[in-house]
Description:
With 212 residues, this protein is mainly alpha-helical.
Amino acid sequence: MHKTIIILFSLLLASFSSPIIAAGDAEAGQVKSATCMGCHGLAGNSTIPNFPKLAGQGESYLIKQLQYFKSGERNNAMMAGVASLLSEQDMMDIAAYYSIQTTSENSAKGDAETIELGRKIYVGGKMDAQVTACIACHGPQGLGIPTAGFPALSYQHADYTASQLKAFRQYSINEQTGSTDVYRVNAMMNSVAKGLTNEEIDALAQYIAGLH
């Protein structure tokens, strides 16, 4: 009994002495995001197809990506330089700001056949290549699942989406060939992207651009 009381007291003490992780401050994040505007646009709505929109993106996802850029786990020289100057609180503040912004509308620009190909893959996957349907993690409207860390895709630039899918696919190519071309690591997405052709990736990216 005495030992039980000591253990319970120790656990209670530990719970109070554990560090408290501060939440992001969106107002502070707006100020800190000033340097991001050049590439990611006003309120996170990039107008440059190669740079992603950040508006409306999940807070936890944004924080994780900034951490990956800072650690080098995600390879991008420009973002590595930016992230290296950010503290954990800076990352949380910036993520909090962008997560509550409204994503600007976009539209699919491919022909009907291309968009339909993209829709089929997004909704049903590609079973012969063991490609899981995108809808499972990113939702029917492409809003993602913020609590699970699955990013929003809705209205994202097609050029950016295609480039990321090809980077995920490149990981598998590098594994097989020994190439050192730029790639992106995520076990789930590496598995999905390796079964897609360039035509399918471009079709999927166009479909996602108009998804909402």
